[in-house]
Automatic annotation (TrEMBL):
<dbReference type="GO" id="GO:0030694">
    <property type="term" value="C:bacterial-type flagellum basal body, rod"/>
</dbReference>
<keyword id="KW-0969">Cilium</keyword>
<dbReference type="InterPro" id="IPR001444">
    <property type="entry name" value="Flag_bb_rod_N"/>
</dbReference>
<comment type="similarity">
    <text>Belongs to the flagella basal body rod proteins family.</text>
</comment>
<keyword id="KW-0282">Flagellum</keyword>
<dbReference type="Pfam" id="PF00460">
    <property type="entry name" value="Flg_bb_rod"/>
</dbReference>
<comment type="subunit">
    <text>The basal body constitutes a major portion of the flagellar organelle and consists of a number of rings mounted on a central rod.</text>
</comment>
<dbReference type="GO" id="GO:0071973">
    <property type="term" value="P:bacterial-type flagellum-dependent cell motility"/>
</dbReference>
<protein>
    <recommendedName>
        <fullName>Flagellar basal body rod protein FlgB</fullName>
    </recommendedName>
</protein>
<feature type="domain" description="Flagellar basal body rod protein N-terminal">
    <location>
        <begin position="17"/>
        <end position="40"/>
    </location>
</feature>
<keyword id="KW-0975">Bacterial flagellum</keyword>
<keyword id="KW-0966">Cell projection</keyword>
<comment type="function">
    <text>Structural component of flagellum, the bacterial motility apparatus. Part of the rod structure of flagellar basal body.</text>
</comment>
<dbReference type="InterPro" id="IPR006300">
    <property type="entry name" value="FlgB"/>
</dbReference>
Length: 128
């Protein structure tokens, strides 16, 4: 995540979220592709669940105490190697719900990003 200008940070956060949505899309697609594969276990990205739990508990107080640890404040580092968790057999309905949710969220973030750039363009052109 960029540490510079607030506009850069907002765009960077949106980019990170879009990247996470793209990864989620790949995981769901793999689950759906393997729905009839014997002994295949559905997978999920654990990053999102862990982040939600942390935000709900206000527990974002992780500290890097060793060079071998991931930097808990570096979204890029976490996104590079997202942790996958197995969630059991593939449930078609659950995968379709996740796919729809992910798609709507992706489109929402794209819309917000387009509005952000539109506002910047208006400001640069002096409101014309």
């Amino acid at each position: 995540m960029a540490q510079g200008h607030p506009i850069d940070r907002t765009v960077s956060l949106m980019q990170d979220r879009l990247n996470l949505n793209a990864l989620t899309q790949k995981v769901v697609a793999a689950n759906l592709a393997n729905i009839n594969t014997p002994r295949y276990v559905a997978k999920r990205l654990s990053f999102e669940d862990m982040l939600k739990e942390s935000l709900e508990e206000n527990a974002l107080s992780l500290v890097k105490t060793s060079a071998g640890h991931r930097d808990p404040t570096s979204v890029e580092e976490i996104m590079r190697e997202p942790e996958m968790v197995e969630v059991g057999p593939v449930d078609l309905d659950a995968e379709m719900v996740l796919l729809a949710h992910n798609s709507v969220e992706y489109q929402f973030i794209l819309t917000m990003l387009n509005k952000k750039f539109s506002l910047l363009r208006t400001a640069i052109e002096g409101g014309r």
